[in-house]
């Protein structure tokens, strides 16, 4: 698919521009440290939490808190431009969206509201961390018909470049989509009925910044991390299996978003995804959104879907 260009200034869009950070709690931080270190992230201790960075990038993409007997999504911080903070306050008031108190352990700055499925959302002024150009695409060098494969003896561990998107569970995908579109300014990329929807920011992002999947309540299904090659998807699959995380889905290729994927099941029943070559929506462009058949909502090719892939283990544990 290609997108068509509209010629409006970036300042015309009142919309969040990034998932600045997502925060959740787990029973055992050392288990989380082991999983994300093996995954290839730069895991740091910050206060009582683990902070997730990608190597060579200054942005903190996520934090993991200790608490409870199961994984729980605590809140999501969404980045906005400084010039939009006052506009958002006026917009939220006009929409009748009330502010709320910040959750425990969260900073009180920015604008706090209750999002779909009772997920606390923070709108805070932040530098844009969602990509502003298509993801890197590395392929083996062209050298006739010989020597194009990387050497196993020299292969390096997969290290993601940045957070591409998060997929959230929702008890009502249509209502949640309407909120993210009408209140927060995101736009539909694609959907399949009322079961799944993919949303991008008009400020420029991958095919989806936030995706929504039907469940019996809110929660985090997966975080998706960009890698620059299909070899890194495979390398990540191998290194996670060797670290004890062989369960998951993929390698395969999605229809919506077009990316190659490997989902690695984490210790709490959710997933971290290696993603390569996802579609990109440039700032100001209009994506040809469509409602797709159910069979196109998951994959073109790949192994069969795990039986519990779309089970919301957060609500199951309540």
TrEMBL record:
InterPro entries: Glyas_Bleomycin-R_OHBP_Dase, Glyas_Fos-R_dOase_dom, VOC_core. PROSITE patterns: VOC. Coiled coil: none annotated. Residues 18-126, 162-277 form the VOC domain. Residues 130-153 are annotated as: Disordered. Pfam families: Glyoxalase. This is VOC family protein.
């Amino acid at each position: 698919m290609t997108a068509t260009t509209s010629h409006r200034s970036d300042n015309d869009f009142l919309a969040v521009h990034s998932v600045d950070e997502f925060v959740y709690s787990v029973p055992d931080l050392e288990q989380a440290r082991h999983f994300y270190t093996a995954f290839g992230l730069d895991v740091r201790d910050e206060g009582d939490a683990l902070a997730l960075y990608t190597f060579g990038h200054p942005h903190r993409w996520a934090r993991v808190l200790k608490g409870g007997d199961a994984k729980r999504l605590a809140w999501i911080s969404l980045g906005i431009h400084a010039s939009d903070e006052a506009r958002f306050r006026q917009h939220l008031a006009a929409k009748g969206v009330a502010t709320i108190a910040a959750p425990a352990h969260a900073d009180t700055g920015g604008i706090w509201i209750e999002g779909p499925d009772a997920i606390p959302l923070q709108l805070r002024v932040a530098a844009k961390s969602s990509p502003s150009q298509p993801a890197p695409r590395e392929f083996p060098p062209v050298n006739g018909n010989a020597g194009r494969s990387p050497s196993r003896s020299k292969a390096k561990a997969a290290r993601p470049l940045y957070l591409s998107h998060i997929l959230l569970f929702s008890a009502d995908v249509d209502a949640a989509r309407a909120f993210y579109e009408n209140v927060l300014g995101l736009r539909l990329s694609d959907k399949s009925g009322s079961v799944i929807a993919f949303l991008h920011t008009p400020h420029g992002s991958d095919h989806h910044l936030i995706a929504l999947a039907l469940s019996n309540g809110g929660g985090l299904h997966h975080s998706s991390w960009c890698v620059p090659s299909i070899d890194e998807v495979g390398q990540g699959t191998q290194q996670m299996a060797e670290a004890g995380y062989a369960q998951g889905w993929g390698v395969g290729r999605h229809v919506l978003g077009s990316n190659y994927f490997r989902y690695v099941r984490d210790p709490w029943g959710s997933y971290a995804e290696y993603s390569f070559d996802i579609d990109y929506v440039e700032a100001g462009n209009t994506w040809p959104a469509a409602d797709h058949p159910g069979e196109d909502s998951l994959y073109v090719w790949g192994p069969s879907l795990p039986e519990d892939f779309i089970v919301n283990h957060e609500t199951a544990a309540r």
